[in-house]
Design brief:
With 191 residues, the chain is an alpha+beta fold. It has a domain at 4-115: Jelly Rolls. The chain is 50% helix and 23% strand. The chain has a 4-stranded antiparallel beta sheet with strand order 1-8-3-6. Strands 2-7-4-5 form a 4-stranded antiparallel beta sheet. The longest helix is centred in the C-terminal third of the chain and has 27 residues, at 120-146. 24% of the residues are buried. The model has no long low-confidence stretch (mean pLDDT 92).
Length: 191
C-alpha cells in the first residue's frame, strides 16, 4: 500500500523533510476492511486512529430504538476515529463501519504518543488537523440550526459529490437528521 496520500495530507498542514515524513508513516500500519466491516463498535474502546487511503466509512451512533444517526463520513484523504474514546480510553459511543471495501492506515494511541515524544512537530500537525476538524463540526452545527432540511441536503450533495454516490438514502437521511421518508419528499420536489 502506498503512503503517498498520507504524505500529501501531512504536507498540506506542515512542511517536513522526506526523512521526517518517512518516520511518521512508519508508525502507520495498513489495513483492509470489507464492505460493512466495523473498525470500531459502540461500547468498545477506540485504540486506533485511521487515515483513509481508499474507500469510505461512516461514523454513527445507534439510539435506544435502534435508529442510526450519522455524525460524518470519511472518504479517501480523510481522518477517522472517536477522539473522546481514543484520547481518554473510555468506551465509545460510536460505530465506524466501512461503506465499501476500503483501505486505511492505522496508528495506535501508544504509537501516536511515542511520535509526540520523539517528534514534537507531530503534535503541531495533529493540533492543526484537530482545529480544522473542529471548524468543520462547528460549521455543520451552524448549518443544522440555520438551514432547512432541503438546504442541508443540497449543501451535502454539492459539497461531497464523490461520497453521495456511495451512500444509501437512509445513510444520507441519518446524516441530515431527517427521516428517510422526508428525504424522499425532498428528492421528489427537485425533479
Amino acid at each position: 500500500m502506498s503512503y503517498d496520500i498520507l504524505k500529501q495530507n501531512i504536507q498540506k498542514h506542515i512542511n517536513l523533510s522526506t526523512a521526517d515524513l518517512e518516520l511518521i508513516c512508519s508508525y502507520f500500519k495498513p489495513a483492509s476492511l470489507k464492505k460493512k466491516e466495523f473498525l470500531l463498535t459502540q461500547g468498545s474502546v477506540c485504540k486506533l486512529e485511521g487515515f483513509v487511503i481508499d474507500g469510505c466509512f461512516r461514523v454513527f451512533t445507534l439510539d435506544k430504538k435502534g435508529n442510526e444517526n450519522t455524525l460524518y463520513f470519511a472518504a479517501k484523504d480523510w481522518w477517522l476515529m472517536d477522539i473522546d474514546s481514543f484520547m481518554n480510553q473510555v468506551p465509545s459511543g460510536l460505530n465506524i463501519q466501512a461503506i465499501e471495501d476500503s483501505e486505511v492506515l492505522l496508528i495506535s494511541r501508544r504509537d501516536k504518543l511515542a511520535l509526540y515524544d520523539s517528534m514534537p512537530v507531530v503534535e503541531k500537525l495533529f493540533r492543526i488537523i484537530f482545529q480544522k476538524g473542529l471548524v468543520s463540526w462547528q460549521r455543520r452545527l451552524v448549518r443544522n440550526h440555520r438551514f432547512t432540511a432541503k438546504e442541508r441536503y443540497f449543501h451535502f450533495i454539492e459539497t461531497y459529490p464523490g461520497i453521495t454516490s456511495k451512500l444509501t438514502d437512509k445513510q444520507i437521511a441519518g446524516y441530515l437528521g431527517i427521516s428517510h421518508e422526508f428525504l424522499s419528499k425532498i428528492k421528489k420536489s427537485e425533479k
